Amino acid sequence: MIPAAFEYVRPDSVEQALAELADPDAKAIAGGHSLLPLMKLRLARPSLLVDLDGLDLRGVSVDGDTIRLGALTTYDELLSLDVSVPLPAALRDCANAVGDLQVRNAGTVGGGLAHADPASDFAAGAIAVGATLVLQSPAGTREVAAADFFVGPFTTLLKQQELLVELRVPVRGERSAYVSFDDPASGYPLAGAAVCGDAVGLTGVAAHPLAAPDVLDELGLDDYRRHLVTVAIDRARGAAR
Amino acid sequence: MSIAEQPARAAGVRRRRLDAAEKTTGRASYAADAAYRGLLHARPVLSLEAHARILSIDGSAALEVTGVRAVLTADDLGIVGGSGRKAEPLARTEVVFAGQPVALVVADSEAIAEDGAELVFVEYEPLPAVVDLEQAILPGAALARIERSADEADVAMHGEAGAGQDDEGTERVSGNVIDIVSYAEGDTEQTFAECAAVVEGRFRTSWIHQSYLEPQAAVAWPEGDGGVAVRSSTQATFWTRSDLARVYGLPIPKVRVEAATLGGGFGGKFGVIEPLVVGAALALSRPVRLVFTRSEDFVSASPGPGLVIDLKVGARADGTLAALEGRVLADSGAFSDSSPVGFAGGKLGGAYSFQAWSVRTYGVRTNRPGAGAYRAPLATPTAFAIESLVDELARRLDVDPIELRLRNVPAAGDLRVDGIAWQATGLRETLEAVREHPLWQRRDDLPENEGIGLASGLFPGGRMGASAMCRLDSDGGVTVVSGYVDMSGTDTGVAAIAAEIVGVPLDSVRVVSGDTSEAPQAGVSGGSMVTYCLGSAVALAAADAREQILRYAAQQLEVDQADLEIVNGLVRVVGAPQRELSVAAIGSRLTGFGTSYPPVEGHGTAVPPDLAPSAAAALVRVRVDRDTGRVELLDWVAAQDCGRALNPALVEGQMHGGAVQSIGYALYEELVHDEDGQPLNGSFLTYAIPRIDAVPEIQTLIVEVPAPYGPLGAKGIGESAIVPGAAAISNAIRSATGARLHELPMTPDRVWRSLR
Amino acid sequence: MARVEVTLRVNGEPVPLAVEPRTLLVHALRDELGLTGTKIGCDTSQCGACTVLVDGRAFKSCTLLAVRLNGAEVTTIEGLADGMCLHAIQEAFAEQHGLQCGFCTPGMILATADLLARDSDPDDEAIRRGLIGNLCRCTGYQGILASVRAAAEASR
């Protein structure tokens, strides 16, 4: 219930934060609602917690045909965006599916993606809408497609000394939606499907969130889950707007 | 006109709870809240093995952590008596369930205690884990517990147990079978042959956790000369005191138990945590606090047991239920201190009486936590079985389901399958109330995949001796003193009884619950007994107080006592209301300095001569999503006979709460262990209690068929409220889809598979 | 581990604290400040019994580190009433029987405060959505729904 002891720093720049992350046992914390529960169960035991709260990674802007979301944008801030921001419906649905009122006040889009829960709602949406993630390290910045970002359970392409700083969402005017069937205890999806145009992002059904394979049987699910995936995709298509 | 016959003035009023202000402001003090000087904090080390011999416990690394004061094991606790889990708060040599406490780390803070607990290393020699019930009873099966130990079962707590016969001689079973209870009457074979319709099924219900929002917590400290006090989240202070005295070899006066404000109990808070904390306080001569984490509460408390029920029921052509045959395997877990499994068989007959029956229940020891009671113990799973079959019988006989049940309402004197006679109940009136409801009228006029289901339930309730005092205070207010824990708002109910009988405004009655050294003797808060039994004692105490007030007033007003009445705090001469004396003035006079009259103090002890079962029925409309197996609850009507609604809002609250707990039973909740006895779920992340978005609006129909011996006619209602809901949902799914489910919970994947 | 100094504003008062980095806000409130109205009901951030307001929004205080909240405005259940005068939400819960054992109640009331601050006239669906993060085992949520409706009406 109480985390193992750790040191704490609160840098005020990305560069400083990256420097602190040189320690291999250091972990960055954003909203903390994925990491802290693990630390409370002592399943995660970073020796140093790098608080990202002081970094200038907030703010949402529309840049031509791209929406730029600061990594520390909370789900609640996303849902409160003015209608003038043409956020794809799928991302709105995903944000609504995350946790509950309290969790949405704390959780951040960047933190959720970086944590890479295999059942992350928002990851499915990021994949389907073709989002790009901007990663920054001491070596500079690089952009990675959301669909390529997740490589295993709680594992992404992020290096130890690298932070997700921005999410870029293309504005394509395509109809989109997210539908999930959730575990009634955890609230996490047993099967979640985000569709945007022809693209489909899945979550809860594999080692990591992923673009839907052409052959869903490849997922190796039991009959019920396999069926749920199809239903989720169909219903997301039906709800796309 | 007797007091009970007068029109109600305080009873029957919908008013807020007595403790509403302190609970809505955060001032109520629960067991983990109070501060104590010099308090030490404890964290348990739980067994990771479901069944093993303990070879060694090494606390040396833990003791090196600054602030860790002790690492206690069983030998440190000074236990000298008692039996069952209460006498073994820390495992001695054999661990019998995963999650069993084996050591206790005590430190200056909870964080340090947790740091220390991580560093206690236990060496185990694993033994075979007994998990499967069918395998466990076979002769030659591996034993869940190898060392013998005397176990007691608390049969008295949850209603009356009949004279069951232990029939161990008639079949060979393994040493895991700790109890066989059989009931039989008449010739079942012959009677089944006479039936026009016979239905049967095998039903499985899961282990289920009470999931009170407040995890168990206790603080214990040395007190007086070699004594100990404990303040805990408990449903039974006096019983806990007796247990602790026995376990630690202390005389009763040296053990004091205080009940903190209780954050839910539902049958799970009976002496699970106190033996451990008291042992630590005595061993260290310091105040020690232990607060279970939610995970610890899930794996090492006393959840309700899983059952396997084989049931066969037959009805005659006219719809009379005639024959019943049943076998129950009841998983008792590793300890049977609080195990209610003996009652399963008696409940198999549901709300009915039969002409011939044969029922056998096996209580089976396994390597799971010791089974405990969960609100109407075993009544919900047994109702699931019997009400499913009665539903099928109605179809077979082509009789309306309510009509069939009305034809089978037991009369007073008809026998339950455990041989005990039914009392007269309000079951008929409850079913008739449901029959009138618009939702029932619509049952045949529903779209595809929607269905309406009905089930009834009769929980026998219980009775126990109770005691109360009713004191007139210096301000004219009345204080009711008892030793009962207010688990469900019962304080507010007894306040209404006292106000009604004495004749004072509701607002001038307060209710206090004292600890075991100061309060009148109290039984348990549970078993639907508090309002019924404590209420009866309060009624007598209030009548006694009223009598004393009138005697004084008669003398002061120089009239006959018979010519006086008390209305709204005023003692008045009937027919001459200007001649009056206020109860406030009397209180002031009789508590002043140098009075020549004794103070007014009413006292009452009571045990109701008979039970007062509270009938309940649930009517549910569902929509089943065939593609996902998800069951949506669209409408819910809960009907229940409460005898007399002392406070209708509280009665409704019990009906609401029971209904939603039955939804948990029906659709969501199961504690699962793998074949090695490892718990697969043990947190709210993996064990789903219903959230607010899982429940429909619940309409309530309160029926009032007065209890002959209840205070102002009131019955205990807490438990029947949970009984019929799961069966009603199952019957609704059957109506909607044609599929009959036999396993609880009816999770989406199970529903989906049953539709294929 | 060394303690870190932070100053929170709790129920309107500045409160300097020296806490280990691993100290959860709920423990700082309960153990350092004696504000035990905020409850701990689980260890997986689900039950919501620990809900408080931080800068006016509802958070689960069991999932916040006190050290990160320097300068933050924290409102606990103890800070809602005005002396002996109950806040409209507390009054509604008391009157509409939005509680039985009361353990979930402080968290439920504060989550309701956030919900009503965003939406002064929520329909039932919005109320349910707003309170998904708050578990109750006693009331079946019926009294809670009635309480939130009444609180919304009283505040309009």
Short description:
The complex is a heterotrimer of chains A (241), B (756) and C (156). With 756 residues, chain B is an alpha+beta fold. Chain B is built from 19 helices and 26 strands.
The secondary-structure class of chain C comes to alpha+beta
Biggest sheet strand order of chain C reads: 2-1-5-3-4
Structural class of chain A: alpha+beta
Oligomeric composition of the shown chains? heterotrimer
Poorly predicted ranges of chain C (pLDDT <50, ≥5 residues)?
A: none
The tally of domains of chain A stands at 1
Question: What would you note in describing this structure?
Answer:
- The complex is a heterotrimer of chains A (241), B (756) and C (156).
- Chain A has helices at residues 14-20, 35-40, 75-79, 89-97, 101-106, 109-115, 121-128, 146-149, 223-239, and strands spanning 7-9, 26-29, 48-51, 60-63, 66-70, 132-137, 140-145, 150-152, 155-156, 163-170, 176-182, 189-196, 199-203, 210-211.
- In chain A, a hairpin with a 2-residue loop joins strand 8 (150-152) and strand 9 (155-156).
- Chain A has a single domain, classed as Uridine Diphospho-n-acetylenolpyruvylglucosamine Reductase, domain 3 (2-Layer Sandwich).
- By secondary structure, chain A is of the alpha+beta class.
- Chain A has a five-stranded antiparallel β-sheet with strand order 4-5-10-6-7.
- Chain B is 25% helix and 24% strand.
- In chain B, the strands form six sheets. Chain B has a seven-stranded mixed β-sheet. Chain B has a five-stranded mixed β-sheet with strand order 7-15-14-13-8, with helices on both faces.
- The longest helix of chain C has 14 residues, at 105-118.
What's the helix and strand layout?
The complex is a heterotrimer of chains A (241), B (756) and C (156).
Chain A: E1 7-9, H1 14-20, E2 26-29, H2 35-40, E3 48-51, E4 60-63, E5 66-70, H3 75-79, H4 89-97, H5 101-106, H6 109-115, H7 121-128, E6 132-137, E7 140-145, H8 146-149, E8 150-152, E9 155-156, E10 163-170, E11 176-182, E12 189-196, E13 199-203, E14 210-211, H9 223-239
Parallel strand pairs in A: 1-3, 2-3
Antiparallel strand pairs in A: 4-5, 5-10, 6-7, 6-10, 8-9, 11-12, 12-13, 13-14
Helix pairs in contact in A: 4-7
Chain B: H1 20-24, E1 40-46, E2 52-58, H2 60-63, E3 68-72, E4 94-95, E5 101-107, H3 110-117, E6 121-126, H4 133-136, E7 177-185, H5 188-194, E8 197-205, E9 217-223, E10 227-232, H6 237-248, E11 255-259, H7 274-284, E12 288-291, H8 294-300, E13 307-315, E14 321-333, H9 344-347, E15 356-365, H10 379-397, H11 401-407, H12 427-435, H13 438-441, E16 450-459, E17 466-472, E18 478-482, H14 490-502, E19 509-513, H15 530-557, E20 564-567, E21 570-573, E22 576-582, H16 583-590, E23 601-606, E24 614-625, E25 630-641, H17 648-668, E26 698-703, H18 725-737, H19 748-754
Parallel strand pairs in B: 1-12, 10-11, 14-15, 18-19, 25-26
Antiparallel strand pairs in B: 1-5, 2-4, 2-6, 3-5, 7-15, 8-13, 9-10, 9-12, 13-14, 16-24, 17-18, 17-23, 20-21, 21-22, 24-25
Helix pairs in contact in B: 6-7, 10-18, 14-15, 17-18
Chain C: E1 4-10, E2 13-19, H1 25-32, E3 51-54, E4 57-60, E5 73-75, H2 88-95, H3 105-118, H4 124-130, H5 142-155
Parallel strand pairs in C: 1-5
Antiparallel strand pairs in C: 1-2, 3-4, 3-5
